[in-house]
Write a structure and sequence with these properties.
The complex is a heterodimer.
Chain A: H1 6-23, E1 42-43, E2 50-61, E3 64-75, E4 79-83, H2 90-96, E5 107-115, E6 118-119, H3 127-133, E7 134-137, H4 148-159, H5 165-178, H6 182-185, H7 198-210, E8 216-220, H8 228-241, E9 246-250, H9 254-260, E10 263-268, E11 271-277, H10 278-283, H11 288-294
Parallel strand pairs in A: 1-11, 4-9, 4-10, 7-8, 8-9
Antiparallel strand pairs in A: 2-3, 2-5, 5-6, 10-11
Helix pairs in contact in A: 4-5, 4-7, 5-7
Chain B: H1 3-32, H2 42-78, H3 82-85, H4 89-105, H5 113-151, H6 158-198, H7 201-206, E1 210-211, E2 226-227, H8 230-261, H9 264-279, H10 282-303, H11 313-338, H12 341-349, H13 354-383, H14 386-391, H15 409-417, H16 426-459
Helix pairs in contact in B: 1-2, 1-5, 2-5, 2-6, 4-5, 6-16, 8-11, 8-13, 9-11, 10-11, 11-13, 12-13, 13-16, 15-16
Bound molecules: adenosine-5'-triphosphate and magnesium ion (MG).
Magnesium ion binds near residues 90, 91 and 220 of chain A.
Pfam families (chain B): BPD_transp_1 (PF00528), DUF3708 (PF12501)
Keywords (chain B): Cell inner membrane, Cell membrane, Membrane, Phosphate transport, Transmembrane, Transmembrane helix, Transport
Subcellular location (chain B): Cell inner membrane; Cell membrane
Chain lengths: ~300, ~450
């Protein structure tokens, strides 16, 4: 599944400079090192054709800083995996990308986040169209207490994406097909979505997200509540979806990151320590902390 | 010494046995090698001792209190002159009262000699009874205490026994409420059956006229009394409906504001304030309705040419609605808060606005719980009395016009039972029939509400 496609090869040059920075490994002990010693991001944080660009992003919960100066690009049709020990700020960072953090009162975001030319955190930017472009799938499947059909139709309805009922039917069917759920539910579209199995519910949530045709899909540990078979299905789906969408996925499973992503970003205590081509991160990590994490020495 | 003093002395003594038991346990522990060799903590031995000594003594005391008076009065009555014994029951009761008065306060002028004699006898019987009681209690206590003391060993499973005893105590407390409810239901049921022996059930349920005034003598005007409960239930329904029209939207929207929009500071200030509404005594609401709202409605109605009676269903319903707002809002607030955040995130993540999320995701998810809360509020409205007595009047009009005065089931029950009543007349008994009906209705409502709420809970667990 490790497809290294063109936009990523083009990234090489851009990132050449920061690649050098990578060689200067911090001297502190990786396990006990405080975040002050993590140093700058090593690897290739930038992309030639970025879909989303994040520059010097800081996130605070009240007085407590959760993300320190993170810069990262996500290229078009790229799958970027975010890994790191629990509490290192992966979810927090992901939720900045479509301003889901707005729902938490004490959360403040600084720095620049752009979706192509759109300034995500511009004070006049309305979150409604933004979230239609940057959809999100959550850790726990959260279908609405409505029918399967209405779950998928919810987004198109609130954004007025269709004119006739038949158009909506089509959107629903296409989304369910893309989420490879159609065959399993086509006979019971009007039974409640909460009646599906966990894996089916998660695919329903994915269908619900792609029904509004977003450009970017954010996934926060989408498989952590699922069994291996359902997980395999979703991973297959991610590969398929990356043809059409740009995907950022948070995961605790390094195998999963290795299977589905083009680039992998390793976070440590709120800092982005290393980003690189997935294969490279897992075979030849450049930062001690990354190495320690993927060899299972802590995390 | 009377029973309460005996009780207090006994309670104090038994409290002492706690320390006795603990002391015994500590001694046992020392003998067999430290506290560790005891089966339970020393305090459990103390509680066990107190429990064993306390329960039988309290039971004896309770039984004595129950039967002591009955037995003594029987004994006294049997010794009264033959002429007195042949009197009807209530007159005999009067005589017995005079005897016991004499016994307590000394002979009055006009007391007959046989009464004085009986009073003396009563006094001495009572004294004997008390002395016997004290002797019985003391010996029972001593015997048990010695037996427990002797049998207590390091192996006694004191903790499990004490916990068993505690479980029973909890069970008894829990059953008090249940038995009381059952008692109320049966007394109301039996009186209602007596009522339905004189007034047919169909007339009560379907009759359109309510005028419970019955002629006491046959030549009196005032008619035979009509016991059709329909106007009362219609009145109840009308007022409750008005109340719900006020309370449901206001309460629900207050709940939505509090749980979805208000900042935490606002929420923590407003929620208790709203709940204060529920703490205002209904009498206060009653005179607010009668003295402020009703005249206001009458005058406003007069201005636009409507004739409004000075006691109207509208006034009572409005005020009742305000009273019920906190019920609806606080229950709805709870269920809205119980809707998982992940559902809201799901909707926000698709680009739904706050109001879309609330209308299309949160409220539908919370709906069963909200309905449950509303049903509980309805049964509260139906049972409300004070506001209606004061603001809606007593006239049993069968009308759907909220500007007229109507009356409700609860109000009629009050008026039927206030004052001197002959207990056997259908007029008085009809109050029980009304009570039974009301009880049935609210019971069904509560049951349905609980079912709905339960179903809601299952959905998210
Ligand atoms: N709502 C919040 N309020 C305050 N602090 C928060 C909040 N959410 C997260 N944090 C803090 O921010 C830091 C990063 O949390 P985040 O949820 O992003 O971690 P994570 O990497 O996603 O962890 P996990 O792998 O366990 O999901 C943590 O220290 C956490 O305590
Ligand atoms: Mg997380």
């Amino acid at each position: 599944m490790q497809v290294v496609n063109t936009p990523i090869q083009e990234n090489e040059k851009l990132n050449a400079k920061s690649d050098k920075v990578a060689r200067e490994k911090p001297k502190t002990d990786p396990i006990n090192g405080s975040h002050a010693n993590v140093g700058e991001t090593v690897g290739k944080p930038f992309a030639k054709h970025p879909k989303m660009t994040m520059r010097n992003v800081d996130v605070f919960y009240g007085d407590k800083q959760a993300i320190y100066d993170v810069s990262l690009d996500i290229g078009k049709h790229e799958v970027v995996a975010m890994i790191g020990p629990s509490g290192c700020g992966k979810s927090t960072f992901l939720r900045c990308l479509n301003r889901m953090n707005d729902t938490i009162d004490i959360c403040k975001v600084k720095g620049e986040i752009k979706l192509e030319e759109l300034d995500v955190y511009h004070p006049k930017q309305d979150v409604v169209p933004l979230r239609a472009r940057v959809g999100m799938v959550f850790q726990k499947p959260n279908p609405f207490p409505k029918s399967i059909y209405d779950n998928v139709a919810y987004g198109p309805r609130i954004h007025g994406l269709f004119e006739r009922k038949t158009d909506l039917d089509e959107i629903v069917e296409n989304s369910l097909r893309r989420a490879s759920l159609w065959e399993e539910v086509k006979d019971r579209l009007h039974s409640p979505g909460t009646g599906l199995s966990g894996g089916q519910q998660q695919r329903l949530c994915i269908a619900r997200t792609i029904a509004v045709s977003p450009e970017v899909i954010l996934m926060d540990e989408p498989c952590s509540a699922l069994d291996p078979i359902a997980t395999a299905k979703i991973e297959e789906l991610i590969a398929e979806l990356s043809k059409k969408f740009t995907i950022a996925i948070v995961t605790h499973s390094m195998q999963q990151a290795a299977r589905v992503s083009h680039r992998t970003a390793y976070f440590h205590m709120g800092k982005l320590v290393e980003v690189n081509d997935t294969k490279r991160v897992f075979t030849n990590p450049q930062h001690k902390l990354t190495e320690a994490y993927i060899t299972g020495r802590f995390g | 010494m009377d029973f309460s003093q005996i009780f207090m002395v006994m309670a104090a003594t038994i409290a002492m046995t706690f320390f006795l038991g603990r002391y015994r346990a500590l001694k046992l522990g020392q003998a067999t090698g430290g506290r560790k060799s005891l089966n339970s903590l020393p305090t459990y031995y103390g509680s066990l001792m107190a429990m064993w000594c306390g329960i039988p003594c309290f039971i004896l005391l309770a039984l004595w209190m129950m039967f002591d008076d009955v037995i003594i009065s029987q004994a006294i009555m049997q010794e009264l002159p033959q002429a007195v014994l042949e009197l009807p029951t209530n007159e005999r009761g009067l005589i017995f009262n005079m005897i016991s008065n004499t016994a307590e306060n000394g002979a009055r002028a006009g007391a007959e000699p046989y009464m004085v004699a009986a009073a003396e006898r009563l006094q001495s019987l009572r004294e004997t009874s008390q002395l016997t009681l004290i002797a019985c209690l003391a010996s029972l206590f001593l015997v048990i205490m010695l037996v427990v003391w002797a049998k207590m060993s390091a192996k006694t499973r004191a903790r499990s026994q004490v916990e068993k005893g505690f479980k029973w105590l909890l069970l008894i407390c829990a059953s008090i409420a249940i038995f009381t409810t059952a008692g109320i239901v049966f007394s109301v049921l039996f009186e209602s059956i007596r009522f339905f022996q004189s007034v047919p059930l169909t007339e009560f349920l379907f009759g359109l006229e309510w005028s419970p005034q019955m002629a006491i003598r046959s030549d009196q005007v005032g008619g035979s009394g009509a016991f059709g409960a329909v106007p009362l239930f219609a009145g109840t329904l009308l007022i409750s409906a008005i109340a719900m029209v006020i309370a449901v939207p206001a309460g629900l929207m207050a709940a939505i504001y509090l749980s979805e929009y208000a900042r935490p500071a606002v929420r923590s200030a407003v929620k208790p304030l709203l709940e204060v509404l529920a703490g205002i005594p209904t009498v206060v609401y009653g005179f607010f309705a009668a003295l402020t709202v009703a005249p206001f409605i009458r005058d406003t109605g007069g201005l636009i040419g409507l004739s409004v009676s000075s006691e109207s269903a509208l006034a009572a319903g409005l005020v009742m609605g305000i009273m019920i707002i906190p019920f609806v809002s606080s229950l709805s607030d709870d269920v809205i808060n119980a809707v998982p955040q992940s559902l809201r995130d799901g909707a926000y993540g698709l680009g739904a606005t706050r109001s879309e999320t609330i209308k299309q995701v949160v409220i539908p998810a919370a709906l069963p719980g909200i309905v449950g809360g509303i049903l509980l509020a309805v049964s509260r409205a139906i049972g409300e009395t004070m506001i209606v007595v004061m603001a809606a009047g007593l006239a049993a009009n069968l009308t759907a016009n909220p500007l007229e005065s109507v009356t409700t089931v609860t109000v009629q029950i009050v008026t039927l039972l206030v004052g001197d009543q002959e207990f056997n007349s259908p007029k008085t008994l009809s109050a029980f029939a009304l009570g039974l009906m009301l009880f049935t209705i609210t019971l069904v409502l509560n049951y349905v509400a609980l079912l709905v709420v339960k179903k809601y809970r299952e959905q998210y667990e």
